[in-house]
Design brief:
Strand order of the largest sheet: 10-11-9-12-13-14
Protein name: GTPase Obg
Distance between the termini: 66 Å
Main location: cytoplasm
Number of domains: 3
GO molecular function: GTP binding; GTPase activity; magnesium ion binding
CATH superfamily of the largest domain: P-loop containing nucleotide triphosphate hydrolases
Structural class: alpha/beta
CATH class of the largest domain: Alpha Beta
Enzyme class: hydrolase
Shape: elongated
CATH architecture of the largest domain: 3-Layer(aba) Sandwich
Cofactor: Mg(2+)
CATH topology of the largest domain: Rossmann fold
Largest sheet: 6 strands, mixed
Helix content: 10-25%
Length: about 425
C-alpha cells in the first residue's frame, strides 16, 4: 500500500466552555451570603499548523476525529475556571481545507508555521456573581458553557512545486527527475511505475534553484477517470511552469504530436486555468533512432496550428540517459520561472465568507414546525444555543429562560400558529407544556 495520501475527510470539534457556578459567601452582614460563583473557562480551539516536515495526509487515514478539551467549571470565591488548551493539528504544506457540507474553501495553508483556527471553542458560562442586581442581590442563576464549534472538513494536499513534469507514462519523467535532482523515484520499463508524486530540488549552473514535481503519468481520458484519472492532477495546480515531456522516439508506437494534444486536452478538461501556465516542451529520448526525424515533423505540425504572430512554445531536445541538453533546459526553466508570477488558485466564489461567530441579525431567531405526534418543535441557532446554555437544575435559570423565550416572541408565534393551553412543545429532546 502506498504511504502517500493526499485527501482526507475528518471531523473536528472545539471544546465546550466550562459551566458557571452558583455559590454564596458566608459572611456577616452580606445579604443571603452574597453571590460568589465564578465563570467557566473557555473551551479549546482546534488549530491547524503547517509543518514542513510532513509530506502526506497519511496521519489522517486512521485518526479522523479531533476534539479539543472543554473549559473548567467556575469555582467559588468568584474564581474563573481554567481555559482549556487549544488542540494543535499539524498538516503538510499545501493543504487546502474545505467545509465538507458546502464545499467552500476555508483556508489554504502553504507557509511553514502558518496557523488557522478551524473550530472555535465555546465561551465559559457566567457564574451567579454576574447576575446580581439591586432587586436580586443573591441570584441562584448561572449559565452552562457555550458549545464548541463542530464541523466536518475535507483536506486536500496539493504539493508545493514550482515546476510540474507531465506526459504519458514511460516518456522518461522519473528518469529526468532523477538526473536533475537528488530524488530517487522508482523507474521501470512499464506504465504507471510512478504512482505518487515525487519531489526534487534543482540547482542550475548559474545558481538558480527551484522545486520540481514528477507527477504520475496521464493517459487519454484521465479527466474522466481513466488510468490514475484525476487523482494527482490537483498537484499541477500549484505549479507555475509545466514541463511537457514527450517521447520523441515514438517507442510506444504513438505519434508524439498526438500525445502532446491529448495531454493538453486532459489538463484543460480537468481545469481550464491550467492552460494559463507557460509550458516548455521537452523532447526526450533524442538518443534513440528516428527521434530527430520525429522532432522535425513535430515542429512542423506545431507551427501549422499556430497563427503567424503567435509565439510558439519553447522546445528543448534532451536525453535523460546521456544528459544531453539538460543544462540548457534547466536554465530556460529558471528564466521562465523568474518571469512567471504566482497563479491565483481559488476564485472568491470558492472561498468561504469570513467567519462570523455571532448571530446573523437578519436571520430569524427561531422557527416553528409541527411533528407527526402533534408536538410543536422549536428550532434555530440562537434559540438552541440559549437552551444549551441554560442551567435547568436551577428554578431561577428556568424562569429566566422562559422570559427570554417570551421576549423573543415565541409565545405569540405559537399562539398565532394555533397552539393551545397544554400542547407539548419540544426543543431538542426537552419537552414542556405550552401555557396560554
Amino acid at each position: 500500500m502506498s504511504m502517500f495520501l493526499d485527501t482526507a475527510k475528518i471531523q473536528v470539534k472545539a471544546g465546550k466552555g466550562g459551566d458557571g457556578m452558583v455559590a454564596f459567601r458566608r459572611e456577616k452582614y452580606v445579604p443571603n451570603g452574597g453571590p460568589w460563583g465564578g465563570d467557566g473557562g473557555r473551551g479549546g480551539d482546534v488549530i491547524f499548523v503547517v509543518d514542513e516536515g510532513l509530506r502526506t495526509l497519511m496521519d489522517f487515514r486512521y485518526n479522523r476525529h479531533f476534539k479539543a478539551q472543554s473549559g473548567e467549571k467556575g469555582m467559588t470565591k468568584g474564581m474563573h475556571g481554567r481555559g482549556a488548551e487549544d488542540l494543535i493539528v499539524r498538516v503538510p504544506q499545501g493543504t487546502t481545507v474545505r467545509d465538507a457540507e458546502t464545499g467552500k474553501v476555508i483556508t489554504d495553508l502553504i507557509e511553514h508555521g502558518q496557523r488557522f483556527i478551524v473550530a472555535h471553542g465555546g465561551r465559559g458560562g457566567r457564574g451567579n456573581i454576574r447576575f446580581a442586581t439591586p432587586k436580586n442581590p443573591a441570584p441562584e442563576i448561572s449559565e452552562n458553557g457555550e458549545p464548541g464549534q463542530e464541523r466536518e472538513l475535507l483536506l486536500e494536499l496539493k504539493v508545493l512545486a514550482d515546476v510540474g513534469l507531465v506526459g504519458f507514462p514511460s516518456v522518461g519523467k522519473s528518469t529526468l527527475l532523477s538526473v536533475i535532482t537528488s530524488a530517487k523515484p522508482k523507474i521501470g520499463a512499464y506504465h504507471f511505475t510512478t504512482i505518487v508524486p515525487n519531489l526534487g530540488m534543482v540547482r542550475t549552473q548559474s545558481g538558480e534553484s527551484f522545486a520540481v514535481a514528477d507527477l504520475p503519468g496521464l493517459i487519454e481520458g484521465a479527466s474522466q477517470g481513466v488510468g490514475l484519472g484525476t487523482q494527482f492532477l490537483r498537484h499541477i495546480e500549484r505549479t507555475r511552469v509545466i514541463l511537457h515531456v514527450i517521447d520523441m522516439s515514438a517507442s510506444e508506437g504513438r505519434d508524439p504530436y498526438e500525445d502532446y494534444l491529448a495531454i493538453n486536452k486532459e489538463l484543460e478538461s480537468y481545469n481550464l486555468r491550467l492552460m494559463e501556465r507557460p509550458q516548455i516542451i521537452v523532447a526526450n529520448k533524442m538518443d534513440m533512432p528516428d527521434s530527430a526525424k520525429n522532432l522535425k515533423e513535430f515542429k512542423q505540425k506545431l507551427a501549422a496550428n499556430y497563427d503567424e504572430f503567435e509565439e510558439l512554445p519553447q522546445i528543448f531536445p534532451i536525453s535523460s540517459l546521456t544528459k544531453q541538453g539538460l543544462a540548457t533546459l534547466l536554465d530556460a526553466t529558471a528564466e521562465l520561472l523568474d518571469k512567471t508570477s504566482e497563479f491565483l488558485l481559488y476564485e472568491e466564489s470558492d472561498m468561504e465568507d469570513e467567519a462570523y461567530y455571532g448571530f446573523d441579525e437578519e436571520a430569524p431567531a427561531f422557527e416553528i414546525s409541527r411533528d407527526d405526534d402533534a408536538t410543536w418543535v422549536l428550532s434555530g441557532d440562537k434559540l438552541e444555543k440559549l437552551f444549551t446554555m441554560t442551567n435547568f437544575d436551577r428554578d431561577e435559570s428556568i424562569m429566566k429562560f422562559s422570559r427570554q423565550l417570551r421576549g423573543m416572541g415565541v409565545d405569540e408565534a405559537l399562539r398565532a400558529r394555533g397552539a393551545k393551553d397544554g400542547d407539548l412543545v419540544r426543543i431538542g429532546k426537552f419537552e414542556f407544556e405550552f401555557v396560554d
